[in-house]
Amino acid sequence: MMSVQFIFETKDATEEFLALDALIATAADEIEGFVGKESWQSADGVRRNSIYYWQNADALRQFSAHPKHLEAKRRYQEWYSGFHVVISNVRKSYGDGAFAHLTPNSRARA
């Protein structure tokens, strides 16, 4: 499994941006191998982190080549004051089982 964190600061979230963002989310959801997405934001709401989970690199490559994703990459300076991407292989995931998560949730030993 892989995770991709898209960390960004928005400067101008226009209606066009929001519509494109929704199309990108739909495109991800339609790719076999997409596991899911979760999002976080800083306390002041300025910095955001969208984390996409993929079963494998092939699924991620399909998403990366999607026309709507490529359009957003070309136009990012219209909407973002900056961004950073972190691509990781998920080696292990665990918790106490109190809630489900997109990654495999093995029970932690106390």
Care to describe what's here?
With 110 residues, the protein is α+β, with helices and mostly antiparallel strands. The protein has one domain: Alpha-Beta Plaits (2-Layer Sandwich), CATH 3.30.70. The chain is 33% helix and 35% strand. It is built from three helices and six strands. The protein has helices at residues 15-29, 57-64, 67-79, and strands at 2-10, 34-41, 47-54, 80-89, 94-95, 106-107. A four-stranded antiparallel sheet has the order 2-3-1-4. A two-stranded parallel sheet has the order 5-6. Strand 2 (34-41) and strand 3 (47-54) form a beta hairpin. The longest helix is centred in the N-terminal third of the chain and has 15 residues, at 15-29. The two termini are 25 Å apart. The mean pLDDT is 88.
In short:
With 110 residues, the protein is of the alpha+beta class. The chain has helices at 15-29, 57-64, 67-79, and strands spanning 2-10, 34-41, 47-54, 80-89, 94-95, 106-107. It is 33% helix and 35% strand.
Task: Write the topology of this structure.
Layout: E1 2-10, H1 15-29, E2 34-41, E3 47-54, H2 57-64, H3 67-79, E4 80-89, E5 94-95, E6 106-107
Parallel strand pairs: 5-6
Antiparallel strand pairs: 1-3, 1-4, 2-3
